[in-house]
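Final report, Chapter 2: Outcomes

The project's central promise was a pipeline that accepts a single protein chain and returns its three-dimensional structure in a standardized token representation, suitable for archiving and comparison. That pipeline is now operational. To close this chapter, we reproduce one record exactly as it appears in the project archive, with the input sequence first and the structure output second.
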Amino acid sequence: MRAREIRRRLVAVLVVMSSLASWPAVADDAAAYDAVIARALKLLPRQPEKVTLVDAHARPGLLSERHVEAFVTHGERVVYLVRQGVTLQQALKGAGVFDCALATVIWHEMAHIDGADETKAQLAEEKLWEEFVLARRVDSASGLRYLALLKKRRELQSQR
């Protein structure tokens, strides 16, 4: 299974887990983004120094080719969240499982800020997701399926 397929399945599992019933889609409302990010940050063991939203359309060379959710840049202690990221967009629909998923995305990038390579950042993300499953912040069955996909992603990454 290729990385793109794993990414597609990760998103599919999260979509199934979310309560998609009656939440309206949210446009480009800064307050809505602030609220979503605040919910995700509350779930983290410690806070990042700074989180900044970036528009993928404003950085086409960097972000348009890949489905980037977030990133960091060398020498900065800032987590950049991509406004068009699937996880962030799903979290805008309402509080729930995507808050946890967004928290793991931020946690992954914080691991990079702290010097972790991709494998260690993915392990940190997996560990936080496991904690969410154990704390019953997410449905156990779906949460374990998502965890299995996260681990599969890491295994595929290490084979490259």
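Archive annotation: The chain has seven helices and three strands.
This record, like all others produced under the grant, will remain available to the consortium after the project formally closes.
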